[in-house]
Amino acid sequence: MTRRSASPSRACFWMSPTRCASLHSTTCARAAGWLLLLSCAYRAYRSLTLLRRFDLVLSRAFQGRSADVYALTDHVQATLGTRWGGFAPAGTCTLVPLPAGVSGRGGNKWGTHTLAVVPTMKEPEWVGWNRELVYNGMWSLLCEIGRWNEEAEGAGRDAGGRQCLEAKREGEKNGQERIERVVMTGLGTGTGGVSAARCGRQMVLAVKHYLQGLPEKVRWDSAEEKRRMQDLNATIDV
């Protein structure tokens, strides 16, 4: 069984937009290596309407000297255009380094350097029918953070357990910083119709399963897989 370290801690906050806004001037000010997560409908070559307050808070906080409130949106969309051809499917995660002018301690007062995009819908709509949406999105986020931090540390390893120099060089070349904290809203809550209870349980369950790890060889009918499915099914009717 390959277990993952519980460090760094990943602090997940699902809260009202007002509390998210206030969080910028409190918690974020005391921590380095922050990653902010944006859960929304995102098409790379389509204007993002900044009607949701949390989206607007992020756009203004990382607008920099630009007079355009869509500066952050355009930056993220460019990455999604390259990575996903303009459409990141629901449940995926894309880590987007912030523009140099607003990244890290020199660019913002919280030291935030990365934005995570975890779409939950193609456009604002009810997605409560997608029973595993939150779990899948949270799992994708954890995997991307793990990969990111391995590259930042130069700790990537190949199938034989040898240090992967390519990962090390990539991290050094990009000046990649570790992600130590995550501030996030709920996934699929609000307009999406996913209950706060289901969202919270699936987020926690994804973290639990991620840290537990899996055997090197897994079969779909193994006891471990069945147990995980039972755990997930128990969160669906909440």
TrEMBL record:
Protein name, per record: Macro domain-like protein
Lineage, uppermost ranks = Eukaryota, Fungi, Dikarya, Basidiomycota, Agaricomycotina
